[in-house]
Design goal:
Layout lengths: L1 E4 L1 E4 L2 E8 L15 H30 L1 H14 L2 H14 L3 H17 L4 H22 L13 E5 L4 H6 L5 E6 L7 H9 L3 E3 L4 H4 L5 E5 L4 E4 L3 H21 L16 E6 L4 H7 L4 E6 L13 H14 L4 E5 L26 H7 L1 H14 L4 E6 L5 H20 L9 E6 L2 H5 L1 H5 L4 E4 L1 H9 L17 H16 L3 E4 L9 H8 L3 E4 L1 H12 L3 H6 L1 H5 L4 H12 L3
Helix pairs in contact: 1-2, 1-5, 2-5, 3-4, 4-5, 11-13, 12-13, 13-14
The structure holds phosphoenolpyruvate and magnesium ion.
The site of magnesium ion (MG) has 4 residues, from helix 17.
């Protein structure tokens, strides 16, 4: 038995076998070969093995995941039988006397870039098929396994160095009981997605991939951030009991699912949820969310090979608005960059991606991408209560420019005879310290603010939110952060505007009494945090929390704040 400590990223207990999800090393080297007959044969064998594997995957996908997913593998099988791809590879092996994997790579790269450059969705999809199939055949040629996370069919705990948000999105909740990673923090996007999928997760263990072999039994305790490898019977029993009491606690919280969020002295605040896809709305409603406070639209753009069309986006936004049945939905425009990459945009690699060409910066530059999204949003606006906000706003001019583009698109749509809601509130994320400091100036321009503490803390403390070595600097209760939040709330209220918070801090039990006292109007969090937060808020007095405001803001360290809150609000 071995215990590892990490960061509890998504609450709950999971016990299952480890499944290592590794990005295979498919580096191909050019080699000269003399026996080209044997090399062609080796290539043909790799094709046959890949076909067999794909047949198995396809029938499995058909059974477990439906026709749509299975279709993808039919397309892959077609590629593997296409002489237009196979013959040039064989010719190259013979004419250039090179190894099969190199000949395949050269040929496939040529087709991929040819198809990708065509302005035709069908051909671009074929490029993606060729890329996937080439990966599989190359894996066979090199003797390297290619994992298929979306096809896992027994209960497992995923073990990975890191999980990208799109890896996380593909995890099948029925079989993936939990995950643990070497790197990442509570606010890395894979952790955020684990919470919306309600999969227990421990991130930032540093050593998970070193210590965990495939098939070994693992316990993931996402409540305390512990991972136990090869547990004894006694330990398993202990964690099964912990799992049961977690479920009992959830049942207790669930009693408030249809209740408003009111303090014990009658003050109402809005408890909203953060979502990444239309499917997440189900979890919001099941967990008693009163609104969507942040729809991270970038997930619509991820895990694919090209930008989503206006129609695809319109469908997604309309679905969310309809499912929320008139409750407020704050949609954030594309916030790509940092740990959310879009490989198909082929942006240059940056030294500091979190400080780079991202979010609104990219949207104001690549306006077609931005305008397409805004059109889709405006068209969907009549299906519910839509609010729009822009991410990563650093200057007043950025906000004005983004809003002007939105209004231009609105006018164009109206000129085309489209109906667009008239009352769409337009706000911004406050996640860059510069915008918090001059929130009074922004407050004159916006309808609302949403404080993005995940980034606000990373930028204020100069500590990368993905880096577990500096995760001690993720300090939501640091007086520096609390003072910035106070500046924003006071500036907004002076102009009669409302302020929400959609960073992870909004659902944190130590932060909640402080934020209530500072006057935050809306708390937006992972859906699973809503009911515990509602339970906590129902026991708090707004007046009492307000009475501590000045004292807390004059403290000098996080520790002091934490101790004070724990003592005064009876938290353990
Ligand atoms: C934030 O920065 O707090 C936020 C909510 O946005 P994201 O986590 O998507 O960067
Ligand atoms: Mg952010």
């Amino acid at each position: 038995m071995l215990e590892m400590k990490g960061i509890g990223a998504s609450a709950g207990i999971a016990i299952a076998k480890a499944y290592r999800l590794e990005e295979p090393n498919l580096t191909v080297e050019k080699k000269n070969i003399s026996d080209f007959e044997a090399e062609v044969k080796r290539f043909e064998e790799a094709i046959e093995q890949s076909k067999k594997e794909l047949e198995t995957i396809k029938s499995h996908a058909l059974k477990e995941l439906g026709e749509d997913k299975a279709e993808i593998f039919s397309a892959h099988l077609l590629v593997l039988s296409d002489p237009e791809l196979l013959n040039p590879v064989k010719d190259k092996i013979k004419s250039d006397s090179v190894n099969a994997e190199f000949a395949l790579k050269e040929t496939a790269d040529m087709f991929v870039s040819m198809f990708e450059s065509m302005d035709n969705e069908y051909m671009q999809e074929r490029a993606a098929d060729i890329r996937d199939v080439t990966k599989r055949v190359t894996g066979h040629l090199l003797g390297v396994d290619i994992p298929n996370p979306s096809l896992i069919s027994e209960e497992v705990i995923i073990v990975a160095g890191d999980l990208t948000p799109s890896d996380t999105a593909q995890l099948n909740r029925r079989f993936v009981k939990g995950f643990t990673t070497d790197i990442g923090g509570r606010t890395s996007h894979s952790a955020i997605m684990a919470r919306s999928l309600e999969i227990p997760a421990v991130v930032g263990t540093k050593v998970a991939t070193k210590e965990l072999q495939n098939g070994v039994l693992v316990i993931v305790d996402g409540i305390n951030g512990d991972v136990i490898v090869d547990p004894s019977q006694e330990t398993i029993k202990q964690y099964e009991e912990k799992h049961q009491s977690f479920l009992a606690q959830k049942a207790e919280w669930a009693k408030l699912v249809n209740e408003p969020t009111v303090t014990n002295d009658g003050h109402h605040v809005e408890l909203a949820a953060n979502i990444g896809t239309p499917d997440d709305v189900k979890g919001v409603l099941e967990n008693g969310g009163e609104a969507v406070g942040l729809y991270r639209t970038e997930f619509l753009y991820m895990g694919r090979d090209q930008l989503p069309t206006e129609e695809e986006q319109f469908d997604a936004y309309k679905t969310v608005l309809e499912r929320m049945e008139g409750k407020s939905v704050v949609v954030r425009t594309l916030d790509i960059g940092g740990d959310k990459e879009l490989p198909y945009l082929e942006l240059p690699k940056e030294m500091n991606p979190f400080l780079g060409y991202r979010a609104i910066r990219l949207c104001l530059d690549e306006q077609e991408i931005f305008r397409t999204q805004l059109r889709a949003l405006l068209r969907a606006s009549t299906y519910g209560n839509l609010k729009i906000m822009f991410p990563m706003i650093a200057t007043v001019n950025e906000f004005k420019e983004a809003k002007a583009i939105l209004l231009e698109e609105k006018a164009k749509l109206q000129a085309e005879g489209q109906t667009v809601a008239d009352d769409i509130e337009v706000g911004m994320m406050v996640e860059i310290p510069a915008s918090a400091v001059i929130a009074d100036q922004f407050a004159k321009e916006v309808d609302f603010f949403s404080i993005g503490t995940n980034d606000l803390i990373q930028y204020t403390m100069a500590a990368d939110r993905m880096n577990e070595q500096v995760s001690y600097l993720y300090q939501p209760y640091n007086p520096a952060i609390l003072r910035l939040i106070t500046i924003v709330i006071e500036a907004a209220h002076k102009e009669g505007k409302w302020v929400g918070m959609c960073g992870e801090m909004a659902g944190d039990e130590i932060a909640i009494p402080i934020l209530l006292g500072l006057g935050l109007d809306e708390f937006s969090m992972s859906a699973t945090s809503i009911l515990p937060a509602r339970t906590q808020i129902s026991k708090l007095s707004k007046k009492e929390t307000e009475s501590f405001k000045e004292q807390i803001l004059s403290m000098s360290t996080t520790e002091e704040v934490v101790q004070f809150v724990k003592e005064n609000f009876h938290l353990s």
